[in-house]
Amino acid sequence: xxxxxxxxxxxxxxxxxxxxxxxxxxxxxxxxxxxxxxxxxxxxxxxxxxxxxxxxxxxxxxxxxxxxxxxxxxxxxxxxxxxxxxxxxxxxxxxxxxxxxxxxxxxxxxxxxxxxxxxxxxxxxxxxxxxxxxxxxxxxxxxxxxxxxxxxxxxxxxxxxxxxxxxxxxxxxxxxxxxxxxxx
Length: 184
What we know:
Distance between the termini: 34 Å
Number of helices: 12
Number of domains: 3
């Protein structure tokens, strides 16, 4: 029998943490949230060390949804990137990057762009070694040969390895993986 996991909504998570803060047990919280067992509640509590995570918010410098809607309307009217940027009080490079990241002039949609920006901003991000199997394999080979993270990073820069990360981040990622072999 295969059962699918039922995820908690944002409202349920808020209620879960409020009840946890008030001292209720995982079993009582799961009953209040109409869950069959307490494992889902325990999983969330343990994942965060028993402390409610800070609510996510947008950076003050990030584009707001209203600005993305304005970009979409201006594209439809046919304005240039510089005109759009001037109207928003933003740098032309910011507007250009926003449009390019989200499908270009032909496919830009404010709703989708806002959702994608929210997803890109989520933390923590997985390290590059966790995402790329071949890169992870090559780094593991060099670590087995007793290379240092600095040596591996320099080798990756000189070789034809397709990496877009800077050397500092790659060194950090390699150092983390060498001290914790399971995950970065």
